[in-house]
């Protein structure tokens, strides 16, 4: 039972070790143009995931104060940008 508790506690490290071991055994999966398409996955999806996770960790007071001003700025910028001259 102690092993199962340890695995639950250290799940992230075990996942990293498994990912590294898998990359060592089959490196052709992560090569450019391979099935994982790292040129797209790393440059867009990974960066978007990192920013999304950091946004989830914001305190709600900080997020609420920022979100209150952004719709006003977006709407005024959008309205002024679409004026006919």
From TrEMBL:
The gene is SLC10A7. It comes from Mustela putorius furo. Pfam families: SBF_like (PF13593). Gene3D superfamilies: 1.20.1530.20. GO terms for cellular component: plasma membrane. This is Sodium/bile acid cotransporter 7 isoform X9. Belongs to the bile acid:sodium symporter (BASS) (TC 2.A.28) family.
């Amino acid at each position: 039972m102690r092993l199962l508790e340890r695995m639950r506690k250290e799940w992230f490290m075990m996942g990293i070790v498994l990912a590294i071991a898998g990359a060592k055994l089959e490196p052709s999966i992560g090569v450019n143009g391979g099935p994982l398409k790292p040129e797209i996955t790393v440059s867009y999806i990974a960066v978007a995931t990192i920013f999304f996770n950091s946004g989830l960790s914001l305190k709600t007071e900080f997020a609420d104060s920022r979100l209150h001003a952004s719709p006003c700025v977006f709407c005024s910028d959008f309205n002024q940008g679409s004026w006919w001259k």
